[in-house]
Amino acid sequence: MKFKQTKEVLNQLVADLSQFSVVIHQTHWYMRGPEFLTLHPLMDEFMDEINDQLDVISERLIALDGSPYSTLKEFAEHTGIEDEVGRWDRTIPERMATLVKGYRYLAELYQKGIDVSGEEGDDSTQDIFIAYKTDIEKKIWMLQAKLDQAPGTDA
């Protein structure tokens, strides 16, 4: 099967980007505090970016004759991103740290995609993976700055 590992990473990303959009949405809904008016609309931007990635990743998988996960059950069964029931007692820094964790997971998965698509000679998909990994690394830097931490430190 052509581009087998690349398609596996693409479909993993379908599950994980779907799940991470929900995690961001939960942050959007459950945040409170003095930064609410600034961060609430920012979460809309974060969700839009993740959903745009999801669309491109899914369509690339289809272009390679793959079948993206498309049900909540499939997303839940295949995602590597944890979820939790919404709670009002989490602070904004705790919520931002959760987002950093999710973005780091995605950056690692995009790196895996870069590696396998390179090995399989799929330059087009590799370009997509590289661009999105770059975008996510910037997001990690920005969130870590918000947490008054360097990009590579634990939140």
Mind explaining what this structure looks like?
- By secondary structure, the chain is mostly helical.
- The chain has a single domain (4-146), classed as Ferritin (Up-down Bundle), CATH 1.20.1260.
- It is built from five helices and no strands.
- The protein has helices at residues 4-30, 36-63, 72-78, 92-119, 123-146.
- Helix 1 (4-30) packs antiparallel against helix 2 (36-63) and helix 4 packs antiparallel against helix 5 (123-146).
Total domain count: 1
Shape, principal axes of CA atoms: globular
Helix percent band: over 70%
Distance between the termini: 40 Å
User: What is the overall number of helices?
Assistant: 5
Helix and strand run: HHHHH
Largest sheet: none
Low-confidence stretches: none
* Architecture per CATH nomenclature, i.e. the level-2 architecture: Up-down Bundle
Overall pLDDT level: 96
Give the key terms:
globular, Ferritin, mainly alpha
